[in-house]
Specification:
With 114 residues, the chain is α+β, with helices and mostly antiparallel strands. Helices cover 11% and strands 13% of the residues. It has a 3-stranded mixed beta sheet with strand order 2-1-3, with helices on one face. The longest helix is centred in the middle third of the chain and has 12 residues. The N and C termini lie far apart (31 Å).
């Protein structure tokens, strides 16, 4: 059948097979220090923060240096509230947008990611 995969962000990733060199998720070659981190969608905010810290921990270059993770929770009006004083466009800022269920609603990325 015709499946609409547009929601996948154009990534053709095959989640079923793990054919990476050493197998397993703890491979350092799987690091994605730059983001965006599609894996976070539907995780809880804390799971996502932990995941991003893992992904960014081994990168020491200034481009993809350590990240500051901020949470933006959705209000009753459906607006995301970014914490005061957070510069969303800063390359080290990662904002995790959380919905009413406490799940990540938008793909987090450096520089605010929206």
């Amino acid at each position: 059948g015709d499946q609409d995969l547009s929601g996948m962000g154009g990534q053709s990733q095959n989640w079923g097979n793990n054919n990476s060199m050493g197998g397993g998720m703890n491979n350092n070659n799987n690091n994605n220090p730059q983001g965006p981190w599609f894996e976070c969608l539907s995780m809880t905010g804390q799971e996502c923060a932990q995941f991003i810290r893992q992904q960014t921990s081994s990168s020491n270059n200034s481009d993809s240096g350590p990240v500051q993770i901020h949470f933006a929770k959705v209000t009753a009006q459906g607006i995301f509230e970014v914490p005061t004083g957070v510069s969303a466009s800063h390359p080290h800022s990662v904002i995790i947008y959380i919905n009413e269920q406490g799940r990540v609603q938008e793909t987090p990325a450096r520089g605010g990611g929206r």
